[in-house]
Amino acid sequence: MTKALESVLASHPASDSSGWWSEAIIAAAGWPPVRKGKEDPAKRLLRLRETLQGELVAFHDRLIVTPASAPAGSAGGKQRWDVEIPLTLFPKRDRGFTRVECIIEFRGDAGEIPGFRVVELFPGERSMVYAQGVIGGELELNTRVGMKLPVVLPGGVSVLDAQAKVYGQGAAKFEYKAERQCVVAEIVRGTGARWRLDDLQDPKKVGVESHQLKVVLETGPNTPPVHAAGYLNAYSEEQWMTQPISDLMGKLTHNLLKFFQKGAPAEAYAEWQNILAV
Question: DSSP string spanning 228-248?
């Protein structure tokens, strides 16, 4: 594990979503019976868990790294690099994800890198972001650290083809109109980046969507290998945990309540080693 991934996991530890679902279902089984004609809480949770099974968010297996071509790209022994970060979302619920958050960290073998800094981010804050129709780079789906799903998609595949591969033919509605606003784009401690893409206009019309974020890096002379790691999550703020579950939310533990209030987010982690070896 690289120092970059260690840093990401320290600030964004992996959620035990499977365990939280099981804990909630067990707890719901002991709740008081509901009125006649109302769905049993434990059965509703089981049905919701099944609905979201296989829901994925994914980084791609490589970053797209190119030396910056602008005149300011190299001066005084410094070099600038454009690093593009492709990501793709596969919602399984009956609507697209409402909010998407992405964290990227850069580290060397020993941690901090002398003369290294993140210079600029794209998209910038308050800019509009439009989903892409073609996925760039290899898409290898990893939903948890150490958990690899057997789905690898070649570079240049369309999101429509990706949907058929992941969901099965015709298993999910697809209308390609994902337009988001970048409400957060900030450089973190000079060695990382954070984005939040929000305000999806009509989540019910969105299935798979793919985006490409970008970081501009600056390195000094004799820079050691640079490693990167990412954390991605996506969730819905819709009130999808409706009656009778919402009435019983107060019975959940703090972590379970927080998990469900966030819409049971889908998460992904990734790490990329020696990214400037181009």
Answer: EEEEEEEE--S--S-TTTGGG
Q: What are the tens digits of pLDDT across the range 40-71?
A: 778 878 877 777 766 788 888 889 999 987 55
**What token pair was written down for 33?**
């019976």
DSSP secondary structure code for residue 203 in this structure: G
Q: What is the C-alpha separation between 123 and 143, in angstroms, rounded?
A: 24
Q: pTM (2 decimals)?
A: 0.83
Report pLDDT digits (tens) over 86-101: 998 888 766 778 889 9
Q: Which SS3 state, helix, strand or coil, does residue 262 take?
A: coil
CA distance 213 to 53: 27
Strands lying side by side in the sheet with 266-272: 128-130, 179-188, 192-198, 99-107, 227-235, 266-272
How do the domains of the chain map onto residue ranges?
A: 3-272
Pairwise CA distance, residues 51 & 234, whole Å? 16
